[in-house]
């Protein structure tokens, strides 16, 4: 069981989504928002230079430069301790399956970000993200 915030990074090219997640997390003591990125390439560059890595990265699938599916593959290979969660409007089963094959733990729809954060918190609190 945890008694400290979950270190989280969020990646989405939508300023609206970035602001919404930031507001939700600021009102909650469960998460510590390390940083927000606009695409997968930016996320990987940030991870390379951080002294401390986030435990969780929430990644949109469709972004310029590098989308979440491709980013998941590289992040899983280079930063295997980070748990990756997809956050997308896609219903393309093949794309979701590829994200999971590339190291993604779970994929959440963009319809309910509050529920997504609650589920990540629940899994982390109960299982320390070992089994999701």
TrEMBL record:
Superkingdom assignment: Bacteria
Keyword terms of this UniProt record: Phosphoprotein
Positions of the Response regulatory domain: 7-125
PROSITE patterns: RESPONSE_REGULATORY
DNA repair among keywords: no
Pfam family, one: Response_reg
Modified-residue entries (4-aspartylphosphate), positions: 60
UniProt-recorded name of the protein: Response regulator
Organism field: Sphingobacterium kitahiroshimense
